[in-house]
Amino acid sequence: MLDQIILFLISTLANIFSAFAGGGAGLIQLPVLIFMGLPFSIALATHKVATVALGLGATIRNVKEGHTSWRLNVFMLACGIPGVILGAYVIIGVNDRHAEIALGVMTLALSVYSLLKPKLGLEPQDKNRHTLGWVIGGLGLAVIGFANGALSAGTGLFATMWLVKWFGLNYKQAVGHTLIAVGLFWNASGAVTMGLLATIQWDWLLALVMGSLVGGYVGAHLAIKMGSGWIKRAYEIITLIVGIKLIIG
Fold first, then answer.
1. What does pTM read for this prediction?
2. Percent of the chain beyond pLDDT 70?
3. In terms of C-beta density within 10 A (0-12 exposed, 13-18 middle, 19 or more buried), how is residue 106 classed?
4. How many other C-beta atoms lie within 10 A of the C-beta of residue 218?
5. Which of 49, 55, 100, 183 has a Cα at 20 to 30 A from 214?
């Protein structure tokens, strides 16, 4: 019972931060699962399944608000899900430590880039909505999807930045789309794939799923109410912490 309470509280906290900043739940949740005794592969598969509830909770809150574009969400699904499935298969034969270091360096770069662009993502812009723009945008999402399937944490942060930089969304809009497309649907496809490839700690899932659901809803609510300026600051802090954590292991 104590373990279940700890799992619920950790999951809730991790997913509040993730839903508010657009990614990074694995920074807290995955290491806790490993610390509590799960081997990496089982912890990763269990974490992937639990994070689907983050997307569900955040989707419920964002749909109620009605400020996301379903056209863009469907586009993100079509481009990203094949990459997610491929990434989950490829990571089985890859040294995950090397991959985590590379992801950490890139995540730190996201933090630095956002800090150096003080007005980035504060006001929405209509960018790259022509044919070539959609093609390049889709390729970028496919690459991020591949990373999402292969790695444990932080890839939602890349999706958020890609939506801000390439399509001109503000942080509030980008986080909303990331939580629906990445948090729910990309993670669901990754969870199914990982479930076929690795063992899942089923008796821990209820507490993790409930925490993810509650945290996802609360974090999305805070993001909607507080606006892009606060989300930008949170995004920069989370990317900085996630990047350092991935590099040092």
1. 0.81
2. 94
3. middle
4. 18
5. 100
**pLDDT value of residue 91:** 67
* pLDDT, position 94: 61
Mean pLDDT of the region 204-224:
87
Tell me the average pLDDT of the chain. 83
Answer yes or no: is pLDDT of 96 > 70: no
What gap in Å lies between CA 83 and CA 71, rounded to an integer? 19
Q: According to the 3-state scheme, what is the secondary structure of the chain?
A: CHHHHHHHHHHHHHHHHHHHHCCCCHHHHHHHHHHCCCCHHHHHHHHHHHHHHHHHHHHHHHHHHCCCCHHHHHHHHHHHHHHHHHHHHHHHHCCHHHHHHHHHHHHHHHHHHHHHCCCCCCCCCCCCCCHHHHHHHHHHHHHHHHHHHHCCCCHHHHHHHHHHHHHCCCHHHHHHHHHHHHHHHHHHHHHHHHHHHCCCCHHHHHHHHHHHHHHHHHHHHHHHHHCHHHHHHHHHHHHHHHHHHHHHC
Residue 155, amino acid: T
| Cα Rg, the chain, nearest whole Å | 16
Closest among 44, 42, 53, 49 to 15, alpha carbons compared: 53
* Least confident among 8-17, 159-168, 172-181, 183-192: 183-192
Token code pair at residue 135 = 């093609």
**How much is the pLDDT for 95?**
63
